[in-house]
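Internal QA ticket QA-208
Title: Verify multi-chain structure generation after dependency bump
Assignee: T.L.

Test input:
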Amino acid sequence: MSFWRTALARPETSVVIGTILVVLFFTISTGGAWLSTLPSVFRVTAQVGLIAIGQAFLMSSGEIDLSVGSTFAVAGLVAIWAMDILTLGVAPAFLVALAASSLIGLVMGVFTVYFKVPSMIVTLGALFVLRGIAYISTQGFSLSIPREFRKDPLVLLAKAKTFDLNNTFIVLLVATVILAIVLSRTRFGSHVLAVGGDASAALANGISPAATKIKAFMVCSAFAGLSGILVLFQEGSVYSTSGIKLELEAIAAAVIGGCTLRGGSGSIWGPVLGVFVLSSLKGGLMMLGAPTSWYIGLVGALLIGFLIVSQVISASTQPTA
Amino acid sequence: MSRIFLIRNEAIAIASICILSGFFALTIGASWFNNIPSLLRDVSWLGIVVIGQALVIMSGEFDLSVGSVYAFVSMVFVLLLNEAIPPGLSLLLSLGLAAAIGYLTGLLTWRLKLPSLLVTLGFLFFYRGMVEWVTDGFPVTIDDEIRSSVFITLLGGKTLGLHNSIMICALLVAVFTVMLSKFRFGNHLYAVGGDTDVALATGVPAGAIKTWVFVICSGLAGFAGIITAASLSSVSTTTATAMELESIAAVVIGGCLLLGGSGTVWGALLGVVTLLLLKHGLIILGVNIFAYQVCLGVVLVGLVALKGVVSELELYR
Amino acid sequence: MRLTRSVALAIAAAMALAVASVANAQTKYTFYHVLWGMTDANVQFHIRAGEAYMASHPEVEIKYVGPENYDPAEHAKFLDTVINANPDGIAMHISSVDAMLPSLRSAAEKGIPFVSVTSHPPSVEDNEKLDGLYLSWVGANEQIVGEVMARHVLRTVQPTRVAYLMSHLGHAGQEQRADGFFEAMPEGVVSDKVATGEEPQKAKDVIRAYVQSNPDLSIIFGSALTHKWTVDVLEELGREDVAILTSDEAPTSLECILAGKCHASFGQQFPIQAPFAYEMLYQYKETGMFPVRPIITGPAIIDETNVESIKTTVIGVLGEDTYYDLSPF
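Actual output:
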């Protein structure tokens, strides 16, 4: 009985059930054919997943980042500039782009914390500004990795597979483990949760909400950037439209995975499962012959469904006072 | 100077409008004034949506689904017309649909205590998906013979060179301004937005208020979509994809606090004027439209930060 | 207070600068080119060609405006605003007759000459509505584009199922192209229009799911925007048997053919379309004369036999750096 109670109280419960249902449903309904599409599903999961875990980390601190889709595009562009104009190698360009994305997080964090602008507004503004930068620098179309770097070992590594899994998916798995440990086992992680739970109580305990939140913003933007750079290496170009509306999908996945807007609690692996559920649906529905437009509608229906289910579960496990 | 910002939150929008109008009148000249009717028309289309968004934000919630509702309801309206249903009945049915959409949102946020940001995020996806599903991604067009009917010309036509939507929008702003300042609905709305628990304790029907606000917001978003469809005779699946962000930006520039409990409808409309002044000016100047995106972001964050700094300074004086 | 003063100073300085820059420009004619969506590579051809035109005609200024993404309603609003600026001429792709009609009428009332550029609506009823509202049009007949591409690919491929990828949802020209393509297919071939949208990851998801669920697919036809995504997906899924058709003389389309990954493309000679349009407007303003028949600039098939020579021409227009920036191959 207590096992069930503990299981139900975990934020990830509903997404775990959801994942099992989705896998069973598609495997049975396609007679097992769906399983052969798993490598593609993992590949898609890696791209959105890296953004979703950053978003989940930030949401644990009680803030939200709407600009991740634009950061995703700008990080790729910065990497191209670093190679093309600064004539750096691929590895330094990678680091420059990652640093630039964390800088974006830093600026947004400072505006949120010191200028008291709600994070929704700051990151909404950043969404517009960074997208504008992406449009202007691609002249509305696309920029590609300079020709001399297209066969660089690091670029090829991002495209390659290990044990039949895309390397980017392995990056996602490693990043998930690291970030989950950071959130649950380190002092920084407990600060993030404390600040998200009750900022003034955290302050009373000697934790600086300002510094903690800014760091959380930087983590979130850095992961969005990381995803952008890896996708650039995989595909060779950044388009002016790259990452549009990705913020909504990342937030939807984080919420399906058990994160809340209130902060103070959170999960890192739950959102990864959330992304997996969404990506499986996309391919699975098409295999069953449903029109592509069903997917976007279903993301919405799922998001609301998960919200309702987790609300009902948490209401039923709460001790009645 | 800084005191003005404290007295009226709308001062920022008014100042921006003065500066932008002056700037564009000087740089563009006479044709700037020719453009005013078009500007007002665009203001009225977005403005009708923003009235609803402002009410929702005043009540302490968000509605991210306005753009999708706008597209969905206007598409249903066009499809009903093409099924030879009389325009008046089509309008009523589509408005009823919009109200039902809002009621569902309100129900989920209030009864189940779900955060409106996430519920409406879900509906943003859902209704956009419905639009794409029904239309397969292709635009729907009002049949030629229906286009000239009295009702459609009333909604989408012009009187004395001005679009009727401008009058409609002005009327709606007046109605809701009066409702907020002179009726109990207004007091209740601000009370609920300020502190829901306190409001409940003092006997304000918080649930009913929040549900009504969502019904009004979706209804107005759908109505704006219908007016636009009546005027342009067609709806494309990509229409209004960034409207949720633009409408929230307008409301914030117009002086509403994001936490709820304060703000005015006419202030929010001034926020729309600010945004579209900028956009139209940049179009006439031939500036790349992507500059508008950058300006939109900078203005949004800049104004809110400025307000924060000014009120901080005032505290230390 | 000091802050207020410095802000006021900055605004005054900005205004002075703006006034000075306007006073400086001595142009006889101002034309607007209302582009259909700034995220389409092909608009670059118009813009670059316009720069060259302005260099050779210093008395003409051409301003380029257009919405970020393809949206006829937004496109119509842009046209409306541009007409209010009372320009000396407008060049534009009529993306939706119904949405543009009121604005086109008001342009005609004001006596602003209008030239339709790029794909022009082909249907008889649309052209009846547009009668007298424009001088002439320059571009390709999209219906024929589709047919020509179909005939070309049928020489080497025996299709069972063909797809057209719609990246610009609601783009009248793309729909005509797809219709022409499908109609020219032999009896019994299944044809699908697939709406992908413009965001790369989402589009690839759609393409991947479509290819996976249709093993009998033999040809994919798409725009210059979508073919790289199609190539990536087909390589990922190991479906090298599907022939890819792309569009336009965009660098990425040419490089795709050179890399042996795309079967063919077609040119509607984007680099000369816009100058024809500006010249029409210019001559109309100077002499009141204009061509009574449309100027049809395409299609011309591009495949491995002639791609090198087209590439030389395009590099001539865009320059080598831009050319390679625009191609990921």
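Spot checks passed. The first strand of chain B starts at residue 140 and ends at 141.
Status: verified.
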